[in-house]
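User: Sequence in, structure out. Go.
Assistant: Echoing your sequence, followed by the structure tokens.
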Amino acid sequence: MNPPDIVIRPAVKSDVPALGRLGASLMRQHFEFDPLRFLRPGDKPEEGYAWFLGTQLNRDDATIFVADHQGVVIGYAYAAVEPLSWEDLRDECGVIHDLVVDATAQQRGVGTALMQSALAWMRHRGLARAVLSTSPRNERAQRLFDRLGFRRTMIEMTRELSEDDGKE
């Protein structure tokens, strides 16, 4: 059930600037979590993220849902179908790539509504499961994903490589 004054709908081309703004905020948040692991936002992450998400709008195997509050996009969920992967040892599935809600709209059920729309899109496509990744420091997101029935299945570990490789 959507929050009363929020409409969850598929993203359209005119949403791209807002998607870029929100995506850049997600990029900055992750970079602050771990600047060695996550992509540096650079000078114009809004433009870069807007360009990227704009390329996803017309894909048959991807979707972006937005949370619209009186004509203003306050959040989005970006999901896609990923094929069977021998590298990841998993069958075809849906992947939640991004979930972001503007800081002014958090704690109102917007993230839950966006996730429910993305999961319904996956079910409609006949997918058996959804997977996602989250930063270990993003505890608020983890609580949401726990409430929505996600379980922990993998732990990503990162090591920076240097000239000292091979030495313990």
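User: And one key feature?
Assistant: The two ends are 53 Å apart (CA to CA).
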